[in-house]
Amino acid sequence: MERSGGEKTGQFRQQYGPAALIAGASEGLGAAYSHALAARGLDLVLVARRPGPLDQTALDISNKYGVQIRKVVCDLADPQAHLVICQAVGDWKIGFLVYNAAYSHIGSFLSADPDEYIRMSAVNVTAPMALLHHFGARMLDRGRGGVVLMSSIAGMQGAGFLAAYGATKAFARILAEGLWYEWGARGVDIIACCAGATATPNYVNSKPLQANPLAPKPQSPEAVAEECLRRIGRNPSFVSGRANRLVCFLMQNILPRRMAIRMLGNTMRAMYNLE
Q1: Helix/strand/coil (H/E/C) assignment for every residue in 118-163
Q2: Contact present, 247 and 153 (Cβ < 8 Å)
Q3: Among 23, 29, 31, 48, which residue's Cα sits nearest to residue 200?
Q4: Phi and psi at residue 96, to the nearest 5°
Q5: Cβ-count burial of 40 within 10 angstroms (0-12 exposed, 13-18 middle, 19+ buried)?
Q6: Residues 193 and 224: beta-carbon distance below 8 Å
């Protein structure tokens, strides 16, 4: 059984325990957050749509860290998903919430039908707000807690072929920053993690091409999760990875915005051979 080092682990559990809920927990970033939080001594509620990968992640964590785990199989696009999750949580006190689940469409805006964008809005916007409203209220009542909303550098400016997805990720960042102000003085920390390309199964399965030899290399999910957990309580939002921060600085502060938007659109076009 493994745990991270002593005093810091105890402090983290005292501030953010006794249990964490991770939405989108079965693999990639969600699994990385789940392992990292279990290593800090938190029991886990793991939420995912596919039971097979969820069962495997739960088994791996249980064997490695010995924490208690509850599994919730549900589709976060379902309007009743938050009710299913709240019922499964029961009397557990959730002191830490990670909303990692996301739905994306890569391609021109009109290449997807409206139902796909409705689903995207449900997973990326509506479900996190419902969970934040429920569990955030309870954290505020206890005067302590933490929330991570996974955003993306795609939400920092318009991105051709990722227009709707980028808009939902901008929403996550703005929501976190606003609640950081509202909730921080009451003991609840919230942070938006704006990740770049990350070597998750979904990213690898999308088969991106090497669009630019100078582009930052994909980060590991573990590196993103650990950086976020180090920064929570200090920043309302951050860009994960030094190379990604440099790119975002150039895009946000040096280049004209129209040029930054064109560059990102051209990168997406080349990465996925889009017309």
Answers
A1: HHHHHHHHHHHHHHHHHHHHHHHHHCCEEEEEEEEHHHCCCCCCCH
A2: yes
A3: 29
A4: -150, 130
A5: buried
A6: yes
* Structural element, H or E, at residue 47: strand 43-48
What does 164-181 look like in DSSP terms, one character per residue? HHHHHHHHHHHHHHHHHH
Residue with tokens 């994909």: 218
pLDDT at position 105: 94
Question: pLDDT tens digits for 142-155?
Answer: 999 999 999 999 99
Amino acid occupying residue 79: P
Task: Check residue 103 and give its pLDDT.
Answer: 97
Spell out the domains of the chain, with CATH numbers in brackets.
Answer: 6-271 (3.40.50.720)
How is the chain split among helix, strand and coil, in percent rounded to 5?
55, 15, 30
Rg (CA), the chain: 18
* Average pLDDT of the residues in 187-199: 96
Q: What is the DSSP letter of 95?
A: E
For β-strands 94-99 and 69-73, DSSP reports them as: unpaired
Mean pLDDT for the chain? 94
> What percentage of residues in the chain have a pLDDT greater than 90?
88
pTM, rounded to two decimals? 0.94
